[in-house]
Amino acid sequence: MAAIELKDITKEYRSDEIITSALRNVNLKIGSGEFAAIMGASGSGKTTLLNIIGCMDIPTSGTYLLDNEDLGGAKEKHLSSIRGKKISFVFQHFALIDDYTVFENVEIPLMKQPLSKAERKKKVLSALKLAGISNLAKKKPSNISGGQKQRAAIARAIVCQAEIILADEPTGALDSKTGNEIMRVFSELNNMGKTIILITHDKNVASYAKRLITIQDGSILSDEAI
Ligand SMILES: Nc1ncnc2c1ncn2[C@@H]1O[C@H](COP(=O)(O)OP(=O)(O)OP(=O)(O)O)[C@@H](O)[C@H]1O
């Protein structure tokens, strides 16, 4: 089943008199449990595509079906609940709150849910374990390494049991050894059944995926199993 289906999606940004076509007639299906990398030159439309898939942005035209639900015209409240439940994000610069401990950062997505403190704790500890940072729960982000920060961001992304994880340049701020460690975490999550879609400029990073989608000038240039 295609968890994600984009039909003839276009995205235009308008500012003053200038219209930028960020995506042009994109057709794409990504099934449940896939691991896809998106590559393409700067400005080719990768982030726009990921943001539309992640319900962070809406297309100018075309149809987006998520688990067969047409999201055209969906209200922000509904899109926001999808972001909490079905889809979560990992960002290049981690987006952790410095004043919170790692535990508290990972707990954030659970605060919207009707869970007891004990239930939240159980879920956070399980996510930290999966991300390989059980020992860092009490640390603040300023006292851990970049790779550990990204593991904390991954723990935060999986704590709600979202099935789809989207990552925009998740290794972009890391050295290559640490980047490889992070990619192994994504591979493990994919082996557990998570759908992973990530943007990268790095062919080595993309090689962890099982499908490579290349974008050029807002269109899909190639889409192949790797
Ligand atoms: N909010 C915006 N307003 C106007 N134009 C935008 C906006 N966001 C993106 N664009 C334009 O849309 C096009 C696609 O941008 P996008 O960020 O999706 O590309 P990208 O492939 O992710 O680039 P990079 O690799 O540099 O992050 C670019 O021409 C960009 O300048």
TrEMBL record:
Keywords: ATP-binding, Nucleotide-binding, Transport. Gene3D superfamilies: P-loop containing nucleotide triphosphate hydrolases. Signal peptide: none annotated. The keyword Coiled coil does not apply. GO terms for cellular component: membrane protein complex; plasma membrane. The keyword Transport applies. It comes from the Bacteria. GO terms for molecular function: ATP binding; ATP hydrolysis activity; transmembrane transporter activity. Residues 4-226 form the ABC transporter domain. Coiled coil: none annotated. PANTHER family: ABC TRANSPORTER DOMAIN-CONTAINING PROTEIN, IMPORT ATP-BINDING PROTEIN. This is Putative ABC transport system ATP-binding protein. The lineage of its organism: Bacteria, Bacillati, Bacillota, Erysipelotrichia, Erysipelotrichales.
